[in-house]
């Protein structure tokens, strides 16, 4: 991490921090008072998003319906598959809570970040003790992308949307497979709501 002067905030993001088991202790050793932000979304949609991204790089990948289970007959969810494993948020969070109190962790609701970006950003700014600089004036819905993009409130400068690798079309997944995954994640989601004190209404 670069040095931070008085009055400055340094931010750093990598999605894999949340799920890499050595990271909470490493970060604790660097700073016990650090503020942590985790963006979470429905783990079933997250798994499909993860798969979509991987399948773009590896077109020979098996269909999602085959990847999700350990074999074709038993319908046991493959918890070793990263797309599934990462979505078991409660297990990852428990490791962080051994080092950091909940008040130092802020959870951004990934669905709300799309539906109401200014609202989610207000909570982030609050958590970081910042003035409410980013507001609804900074977002507009890009109809073509179907996602919010950033704009300068004064109308000057070009708007900025995330790159083409974000907000990709997901494959249609067999509804029975989706239901099986929903059932699998249900208790872990409940545990996550209990640990965070927040309900994300994923089921
Ligand atoms: N504003 C805006 N524009 C485009 N996409 C948006 C936006 N806000 C959130 N999202 C969702 O972000 C998902 C991609 O995030 P990732 O977690 O893959 O990003 S990364 O791992 O940090 O690179 C991406 O997932 P996919 O839809 O599966 O591509 C989006 O659903």
Automatic annotation (TrEMBL):
GO molecular function annotations of the record: [heparan sulfate]-glucosamine 3-sulfotransferase activity
Signal peptide interval: none
Chain residues that bind 3'-phosphoadenylyl sulfate: 41, 49, 166-170
Occurrences of domain Sulfotransferase (ranges): 30-186
Alphabetical UniProt keywords: Disulfide bond, Glycoprotein, Transferase
InterPro entries noted in UniProt: NST/OST, P-loop_NTPase, Sulfotransferase_dom
Entry annotated with the keyword Nucleotide-binding: no
Disulfide bond as UniProt keyword: yes
Disulfide bonds: 149-161
Tree of life domain: Eukaryota
One Pfam short name: Sulfotransfer_1
Database matches in PANTHER family: HEPARAN SULFATE 3-O SULFOTRANSFERASE-B, ISOFORM A, HEPARAN SULFATE SULFOTRANSFERASE
Protein's recorded name: Sulfotransferase domain-containing protein
Organism: Patella caerulea (Rayed Mediterranean limpet)
